[in-house]
Every structure is written in structure tokens, then in C-alpha cells.
Amino acid sequence: MNNMEWKFTDGLTPYDEAIEFMEQRVVDIHGGKASELIWFLEHPPLYTAGTSAESTDLVSPDRFPVYETGRGGQYTYHGPGQRVVYVMLDLSKRGRDVRKYVFRLEQWIIDTLAEFNITAERREGRIGVWVTRDDGREEKIAAIGVRVRKWISFHGICINVEPNLEHYSGIVPCGIAEHGVTSLTDLGLAITMQDVDAVLKHKWMKIFEK
Q: How far apart, in whole angstroms, are the C-alpha atoms of residue 43 and residue 84?
């Protein structure tokens, strides 16, 4: 924790600038020139295509900018009101277990949402973190996309705090058409981005610094 940098960027960070920054940070962490980094930010509206993306899942290709990215997963949306957290860790010092790392990212989200009395869960065969509505509908509230280079992680997680959920209609999120997406606001919770950030930082030690 003492060697960890926590970076909070206000406003909307262009996606290509974020990727360029992460790429360089990965090189610097691997070379011992920089510390591990947890970066909190928001993006302008855009779609990203992971390594498993199917072109047919991009319903509205001209709606927002579309970025091909080397993270795992399929299509996802980023935009204002969504907390994006890019996690740059040296996994060579953390067991070199990517599956365990992804499990911990999921648990980080689940434990954070539990602080707001939200029961969030994993679903077999589905990426991300899910909630079940009172009427039984299952909806995605958080996404995970990870890339690892030379055992340094980058990309990370995003949690829907109060994004415009209609923006998701331009894609089939993560290739899953039969389930929708939700947010803290959509669930009727008046929780700020700062509230979410504070809990995420508090929960970090329990999940990652065991």
C-alpha cells in the first residue's frame, strides 16, 4: 500500500490518452521506474471492443467513437457517470495467477457494493458483476476487462454509478443480449462518485493486500 499510487482525474479523460498513459506506465513499472497505480477516471461516451468482440454486437457503429483494445472481453460502453478504475499491478509479485487476479477484482466490486446494501454477484459463464431486481431480472452493474503484459496488469473495472443507460443500446454489452444493464441511480440509490471511490479505496487492503 505504501508503494501504491492512487490517481484521481477530474473531468472526462479521452480514451486514447488513457491508453497511451497506461502503456507507458506498464513499461515503467516493469522496469522498476514507477510504482503500481490505481487510476480513477471517467471517459466521454465511447464503445470499446475487446479481443473476443463480434462485429454483429456493434449495433450502432456511428453513434460514438469505437476503440479496439487489447483487453479481454467483448464490446462495452464507457461514459460520464461511470466510474472507471484502471489497475496497474506487478503480478509477478502477487502470485502470477491471472484468474485469481480477476476473481479479486470481482470481489473488490462485490464488497464495495455491499457497503451500499446492494447484493452483487458473479454469474457462471458471464463476465462482470450482476444484480437481481425485485422482479427477478438480472442486470449487469459492473464490467471487468483485463490485459497483462510481462506480468504487469492494466485496464481494469468500471461501475455504473449514474451513466446514461440508453447509451448501451448501441451495442450488445459483453455479447449478452438476454440481460440488461443497471446503475446505482437506476436502483434508486443516491450515491455519489466520491462515495464509491472512498469505499473502493477502503476495501482494497482486504482484497489485494492479504
A: 8
Q: Does CATH number 3.60.10.10 belong to domain 4-208? A: no
Contact 149, 26 (CB under 8 A): yes
- Tens place of pLDDT per residue across the chain (210 aa): 458 999 999 999 999 999 999 999 999 999 999 999 999 999 999 999 888 888 889 999 999 999 988 787 788 899 999 999 999 999 999 999 999 999 999 999 999 999 999 999 999 888 889 999 989 989 999 999 899 999 999 999 999 999 999 999 999 876 666 678 999 999 999 999 999 999 999 999 899 986
- Give the pTM: 0.94
- Active-site residue list: 174
| Contact status, residue 143 vs residue 102, Cβ threshold 8 Å | no
